[in-house]
Every structure is written in structure tokens, then in C-alpha cells.
Amino acid sequence: MAETQPVAEFAPAKINLTLHVTGQRPDGYHLLDSLVVFADVGDRLTLALSDTPALNVTGPRAEGVPGDARNLALRAAETAGTTVRIALDKHLPAAAGIGGGSSDAAAVLRGISRLTGLAPPDDTVRLGADVPVCLPARAARMQGVGEIVTPVADLPRLHAVLVNPGVEVATPACFARLATRTNPPMPDPLPRWSGPADLIDWLATMRNDLEPPACHIAPVIADLLETLRADPACRLARMSGSGATCFALTDTAAHARAMAARLSRPQWWVQPTRLS
Ligand SMILES: C[C@@](CO)(OP(=O)(O)O)[C@H](O)COP(=O)(O)OP(=O)(O)OC[C@H]1O[C@@H](n2ccc(N)nc2=O)[C@H](O)[C@@H]1O
Ligand SMILES: Nc1ncnc2c1ncn2[C@@H]1O[C@H](COP(=O)(O)OP(=O)(O)O)[C@@H](O)[C@H]1O
């Protein structure tokens, strides 16, 4: 098969504004209720249909990312029953609670759909719990173990700083340390927020249930959250996913940029961003 013209896809960082763990299935997977948004920072992929699968990982965060069949980008193509050549320009820290691998997998599935004209496979949760929500990459409520994705229309756009303190937290270890597995869900239906300030006030009454276990596993996360909350521009600080990346919400883009400059540390990944 002659290679097709490559298509480009952006794989944005996934942020769990809330992450409520509401139960556990008999197979051990946890039931979640999470308000998920996407950042304007992320990985960049190009892919083309080809005879043999290939993956080239480059970019500032390429180190340590598997370049072989373990990579979720290649596994996504396999799930779609397609052979592609993928160039992955990695900007997101891995194993960081911002769904880098899942967002790459979703970007591959979107790219393959554009190349073949076929719809993505149904059962994408098998690739990873975050893949279904990363497929549309739009603000959504995520439930079940990740397979139930309900778009949230008109979510006010937020300004934020993302900070990863340079430690990896293993997702299973984080779930395993939960004190309780049956915690209250978010309200149903979700409220309609009048604007960013209203949304932030409401978020302050919600939770990330994985934050206490992650802080126990990696106390540097608790220190980071304390630093974020002490900053004059911070309206709300919380961890995303199973960590260790945390986000601080600010009133304006200028505040996010100024806060990011104040937070610069050698081992930290710090990004001002917009979430929507
Ligand atoms: C916690 C979340 C929240 O969005 O984000 P991350 O921290 O990964 O970004 C996700 O549910 C993670 O998604 P993902 O990383 O794709 O999960 P998977 O590969 O399917 O699962 C990794 C491991 O996490 C645990 N797991 C994951 C999802 C879930 N609903 N219940 C679980 O108990 C299981 O121990 C599983 O073996
Ligand atoms: N494309 C990818 N990018 C990053 N990590 C990947 C990728 N494919 C597989 N992995 C593996 O998946 C693990 C989880 O990565 P990632 O999806 O970034 O984290 P998280 O689930 O915490 O958001 C990493 O430890 C890495 O070895």
C-alpha cells in the first residue's frame, strides 16, 4: 500500500476538575463521577496509513515514553484494525494524571477516522479508562469506569496554571489507598453556571477523592497544593486524575502567566493554559 498523505492531530491534556469515586465493580475497577475539561497544551501527532506499523517519539517529554507496541498510540491503531506510521511529538509529562497516553490514543483514533472515513471502534475504554472522554476532547461528565461520557455544553472557559512536580504516581496504587470507595457523586443534573467565578465557587464544594491517597504516596503533592493555594492569583487549586499534576484556577490569562512565572522551579513542569 502506498503511504497516504499524513494528517495532523492535537492531543490535549485532560484535566479532572472534579473526580468523585462512587463505588467499585466486582472486577476491581472503580466507578467515577468526574467533570473533565481539556487544555490548550498537549502532544502533537501526525499519522499516515502504511504497510507496517511505525512510531517515532520526539519532543521535550519523549524520554521514558515507550516507542514500541506498549505505546497507547500504536495500541489504538491496532484496536481500530489499521496499520499506521505515527510521529508523536511529546509535550505532556507521562504518568501525570493528565491522560497523555489516553489523549494520544484518542488522537490516533480521530486521525484514522479521517484517513479511512470509518467511525472509531465502540469499546475504546478497553484501551484505557480515559480514552472515551479523550475521543471528543470536549468538556464532559465522565461516569461508569470511564465509558459513560456526557458532553457538558456551555461550560465557562477557565484560566489555569498546570504544575507537575516531577514525581510519578502509579494510578492503581492511588486507587488502592482510598479510605472509602463509596463517596457521594456530583449533583444530577449538574448546575448551569453563570460564568467562570460561579463555576469556581461550585468546584470548591466538589472533590478529587484521589488527592488524599496521592498526597500520602507523594507528599510533594501536598506541598505543591499548599504553594499554589498561597499564591495571590489562585482561586482554587486541586490535583488532576491520580496525580501528580495539579491545577490552579485564576481570574485572567495574565494572572495565569504571572503565577506560572512565580512558580518556575528546575524540576517542575509549569504551563499557563485555558481549559474548555
Ligand atoms: C484516574 C483517571 C481519572 O481520569 O486518570 P489518570 O490519573 O490516569 O490520568 C483515570 O480513570 C484512569 O484512566 P487510565 O489511566 O486510562 O486507566 P486504565 O489504564 O484503564 O487503568 C489503570 C489502573 O487504574 C485503576 N482504575 C482505573 C480506572 C477506574 N475507573 N478504576 C480503576 O480502579 C485500575 O487499577 C487500573 O488497572
Ligand atoms: N503515548 C504515550 N504517552 C505517554 N505514556 C504512555 C504512552 N503510551 C503508553 N504510555 C505508558 O502509559 C503510562 C501512563 O501514562 P499517561 O497516560 O501519560 O498517564 P496518566 O494515566 O497518569 O494520565 C506511562 O507510564 C507510559 O509508560
From TrEMBL:
Residues 73-129 form the GHMP kinase N-terminal domain. It comes from the Bacteria. ATP binds at residues 93-103. One of its GO terms (biological process) is terpenoid biosynthetic process. GO terms for molecular function: 4-(cytidine 5'-diphospho)-2-C-methyl-D-erythritol kinase activity; ATP binding. The lineage of its organism: Bacteria, Pseudomonadati, Pseudomonadota, Alphaproteobacteria, Rhodobacterales. PANTHER family: 4-DIPHOSPHOCYTIDYL-2-C-METHYL-D-ERYTHRITOL KINASE, CHLOROPLASTIC. Belongs to the GHMP kinase family. IspE subfamily. Coiled coil: none annotated. It comes from Primorskyibacter flagellatus. It holds the Pfam family GHMP_kinases_N. This is 4-diphosphocytidyl-2-C-methyl-D-erythritol kinase.
